Amino acid sequence: MVPMNERPIDALLLVSFGGPEKPEDVVPFLENVTAGRGIPRERLEEVGEHYYLFGGKSPINDLNRELLAAIRKDLADHGVDLPVYWGNRNWDPYLRDAMEQMVADGIRRPAFFLTSAYSSYSGCRQYRENLAEAVNGLDLDLVRLRLYFNHPGFVGPFTEATRAALAEAPEGTHTVFVTHSIPDTMNDASGGPGVGAYRTQHEEVARLVAEGAGAGEYSLVYCSRSGSPRTPWLEPDVNDHLEELAGRGITSVAVVPIGFVSDHMEVLYDLDTEAKETAERLGLRFVRVETPDRHPDFVAMVRELLTERMAMDEDPDVERPTVGRCAPNPQTCPIDCCANPRGEIPAVR
Ligand SMILES: CC1=C(CCC(=O)O)c2cc3nc(cc4[nH]c(cc5[nH]c(cc1n2)c(C)c5CCC(=O)O)c(CCC(=O)O)c4C)C(CCC(=O)O)=C3C
Ligand SMILES: [Fe+2]
What we know:
alpha/beta; Rossmann fold; four-stranded parallel sheet; about 10% strand; binds coproporphyrin III; binds fe (ii) ion; Ferrochelatase_N; iron
């Protein structure tokens, strides 16, 4: 038998969050997301309302269908002849279905790409736990593609879109970088105990995009806080921050959702609806900058991460493009990377 690590990578698996597609899906979806997580009832009802406001449909699955088609076309255009599969953590198509399909198709060693760019339990280990559970009992050897917060194909599209937004905006526009808030303890554990990679990685991306786009004053703030109000989460909240900016005499903001790969519900609700209303109330001109998923450089990045990882099977020292000061995310996660706040369970490395 050929040792596992000598099987060639033979497929790409797009791994995402999943979202409801119709009103009846909303409650079971939220139950999937929050099983055993102690999210207060009121918060769940509130988040349910965000989905109902958009007809009970999250944009995320359609965005992933488009991304999947774009990746397949890009791979074909570049002579990379590998099949591409898609599975979600929380909604149909589920990871387990994708795994079973791969086995049926004779796949042995798929590489997986996460629609999450940064280190955190929610964006890194939780996906790896879900993958370990989904692959249980199947002869598949899963290979992780590195996180890409500092890949030119992620930073570049944000920089370009921010520059374009600022070109249309008045002098003195303040650039507000926004990401998903997480508990302080989750931030501390991200990248390893006490590392705090989540916040550091976002600070770095904010700096790179601001400098690359020729932005003036900028800040990094958070949205979508959940959990118990007694638990500290990363702050300030984007709405509080807009109040503060208005109080300082700022009259125009460009909001850049650097924590998000595509326009999913947090972007549509927390930014384009709620933060926009806050800005209107404060008399702030508000523009929301595009996310990178439809940009050809982002799609090409997925292929580059895949071919880079395939090349690493032959030569571990292959070049791994990055921008800025952070090292490329390691080929396999350190054993204590992005710890589960509820205790250790099996996770794919
Ligand atoms: C860091 C991070 C990302 C970015 C990385 C990545 O992209 O993976 C992310 C993505 C997403 N989060 C999403 C949706 C939800 N997240 C929730 C809850 C939570 N998220 C958290 C963090 C993150 N979440 C945390 C610490 C919680 C608390 C509970 C827990 O510890 O798990 C809840 C429950 C309600 C609530 O508590 O708000 C929902 C419905 C969707 C789908 C959106 C759509 O439908 O378009 C996406 C892409
Ligand atoms: Fe979330």
